[in-house]
Amino acid sequence: QVQLVESGGGLVQPGGSLRLSCAASRSGFILSINVMGWYRQAPGKQRELVARTSRGGGANYADSVKGRFTISRDNAKNTVYLQMNSLKPEDTAVYYCNVELLDGLSHWGQGTQVTVSS
Prior knowledge:
four-stranded antiparallel β-sheet; 11 strands; 0% helix
């Protein structure tokens, strides 16, 4: 069973910053991770891709976050980060970590709430 532990969500004012972290592990096994990413789901809306990064380091971003969010990963720690700057109220959502292993299986974190409000 792959475990994803997310942290870093919270309440922030518009224009502020937050950094999300997601650490992946599986007891007794070495993880072979391909893609790591972040998705979000706002109330009444479908879950959408925020950013994802491949094992080789390439990254993709949703147009709505380009220039404000930066995804990075530490392969040695099986951890992915999402630095979120210039946050807007429309960024308010539950943010989910997603990990795709080399075997093709995808795993989700439990989600962390990000609220942008004054």
